[in-house]
Write a structure and sequence with these properties.
Layout (H helix, E strand, L loop, with lengths): L4 E4 L15 H13 L4 E5 L5 H10 L8 E7 L11 H8 L4 E7 L2 H8 L3 H16 L5 E6 L1 H7 L1 H13 L4 E6 L6 H11 L7 E5 L6 H10 L4 E4 L13 H11 L7 H4 L2 H12 L16 E2 L2 H9 L17 E2 L7 H10 L9 H16 L7 H11 L8 E10 L8 E10 L2 E9 L2 H13 L10 E9 L10 E9 L2 E9 L2 H34 L2
Parallel strand pairs: 1-2, 1-8, 2-3, 3-4, 4-5, 5-6, 6-7, 7-8, 9-10
Antiparallel strand pairs: 11-12, 12-13, 14-15, 15-16
Length: about 525
């Protein structure tokens, strides 16, 4: 099977994206993850451009990678400076990376207007730099910047720049769509023309300004390119680079070519989330292959079909990339959605049970009022169990009050909440302060309940989202609050809707606490059964 080499530039080109930044330790951690994924090349940065990248190459030498080669990135020598005297070239060699990658000018417009040198001088820059680096590095990659734009402007000169790299014995010549505006049919046609003149293995590097970076990369592979550059989650300058989270599964599953192992492919979603987490970026739920919504089904007709045969509405099995099928519930749901969720929650329910129709109608009624269960599946599980009479009421809040106190002598308002909670026959009155009224209410309720349920100390609120629903009522509008909570064993989402933001928050918080207590009961029951089975 033909093997395609994957060259990851998340740690260099990816960090040029808006809002993307990694500390040196983060870059080291990501490098290890990429290595575990079977990525062939990891471009660590430009050691001549900033202290952080110099520190990375120093630190990565202390690490042990199983497969990946570390690449240092830079440019050709400056005009009128020999390679051995050029600071950038010397810094690249000093980085002691496994591979050195440099870029050079292909487009005659850039040579004249950016470098302000002759076309022949540019050819000398390319050849001299690569030839010198080949004497000092085991492997050298040449990135032909703006190649496709340069080829269209002056085909003969663009080919000359590649011949200069080939004559200098570059190990791979990468054709770059630097402005990201080329179309797949242009990419394929130009590569085909290049192959008549260049015998050095070719690579592809595309940007996503025309939303074609992945398609352009795949067309290049079909045309015979053996080296593909990109970033995890498509991070990169402007609209981003080619997204390796889409390219890698497409190479393996659509084109039938080799790049990483099947086992490594199953960790693709995990890698995507890991990089997002270190970048402090919320994952794109609609991202192909690895996003939460990539295999999520909402329409009743769709759900009915995938229950019988998943391939009816799924282009691959999601498990191949570490993802999974999700069934959503909404006002578009049918009984199939309800039954699929019941199976997911280990709830015994069938299509003939009248409660199934009751749950469906209740769901549609609540969504009409503003509820949304797509990000609040814990609330939906509680709704289902309440309808079936399987829900155990562990506590009730008999009253609460939230106050904000502010005066011109205080820097910010002070929020305080008081609650009255009843558990069994006991009533607990508690007060607590917090960073805002919702936090104060959450603190007060938990403070009261922790006396009865100590494990609530492990409950954490991870995210809190407020959405004003568009009903034209201004400050009297309906509010939807989504809360993401979790403990040591997992995370879950709950929802509350009201025309009062405190009340909406309270409803979401109550479901979160209720769901946590239910999980603890189920885990406790499971441990008891296991203990009984093991006891002779």
């Amino acid at each position: 099977m033909k093997q395609i080499k994957i060259y990851d530039t998340t740690l260099r080109d990816g960090t040029q994206g808006e809002d993307i930044s990694f500390q040196v330790k983060d870059k080291i951690r990501i490098a290890h993850k990429l290595d575990e994924m079977g990525i062939h090349y990891i471009e660590g940065g430009w050691p001549g451009s900033n202290p952080k990248d110099i520190a990375f190459f120093k630190e990565i030498r202390k690490e042990s990678l199983s497969r990946a080669k570390i690449a240092a990135f830079g440019s050709t020598r400056r005009a009128r400076v020999t390679p051995d005297k050029d600071h950038n070239i010397r810094t690249l060699i000093a980085a002691k990376a496994d591979v050195i990658t440099i870029f050079g000018k292909t487009w005659d417009f850039h040579v004249r207007e950016a470098l302000r040198i002759s076309l022949d001088e540019n050819l000398e820059l390319i050849h001299d730099s690569l030839a010198f680096l080949k004497q000092n590095a085991a492997e050298v990659v040449y990135d032909a910047e703006h190649f496709f734009d340069g080829y269209r402007a002056n085909p003969a000169y663009a080919i000359k720049t590649l011949r200069a790299a080939q004559d200098a014995r570059a190990d791979c010549i990468v054709l770059c769509d630097t402005n990201g505006g080329n179309m797949p049919y242009d990419i394929a046609a130009i590569i085909k023309a290049v192959q008549k003149h260049i015998k050095t293995p070719l690579g592809i590097h595309t940007h996503n300004d025309g939303e074609c970076a992945v398609a352009n990369s795949l067309h290049a592979v079909r045309q015979g390119v053996v080296h593909v550059q990109g970033t995890i989650n498509g991070f990169g300058e402007r609209c981003g680079n080619a997204n390796l989270c889409s390219i890698i599964p497409a190479i393996k599953l659509k084109l039938g070519l080799g790049c990483i192992s099947d086992e490594q492919l199953r960790r693709l979603r995990e890698l995507s989330r890991y990089v997002d987490e270190l970048a402090n970026i919320s994952p794109n739920k609609h991202q192909a292959y690895v996003g939460n919504s990539a295999f999520a089904h909402k329409g009743g007709v769709h759900v009915s079909a995938i229950v019988k045969r998943p391939e009816t509405y799924e282009h691959i099995r999601p498990e191949l990339v570490g993802n999974g099928t999700r069934v959503l519930v909404s006002d578009l749901s049918g009984k199939s959605n309800i039954l699929a969720k019941a199976k997911e929650f280990n709830v015994d329910l069938n299509s003939k049970d009248p409660v199934t129709q009751e749950i469906l109608e209740k769901t549609k009624e609540l969504e009409h009022l503003g509820y949304q269960f797509e990000g609040a599946e814990a609330s939906f599980e509680l709704l289902m169990k309440r309808s079936l009479g399987q829900h155990k009421k562990r506590f009730s809040v008999t009253g609460y009050r939230v106050m904000d106190d502010w005066s011109e002598h205080k820097q910010k308002p002070v929020s305080e909440a008081t609650v009255s909670v009843k558990v069994g026959g006991r009533t607990e009155h508690t007060a607590a302060v917090g960073h805002g009224p919702v936090n104060a209410l959450d603190n007060a309720i938990r403070k009261a309940l922790e006396k009865f349920y100590p494990k609530l100390k492990h409950l954490k609120l991870h995210d809190y989202k407020v959405r004003v629903l568009p009903n034209g009522q201004g400050t009297a509008a309906v509010i939807r609050v989504l809360v993401e909570s979790g403990d040591r064993t997992g995370r879950w989402g709950t929802v509350g809707v009201s025309d009062n933001i405190i009340d909406a928050s309270y409803l979401a918080l109550m479901d979160s606490i209720d769901y946590k207590l239910q999980r603890d009961d189920l885990r406790g029951a499971a441990r008891s059964r296991q203990h009984r089975e093991m006891t002779p």
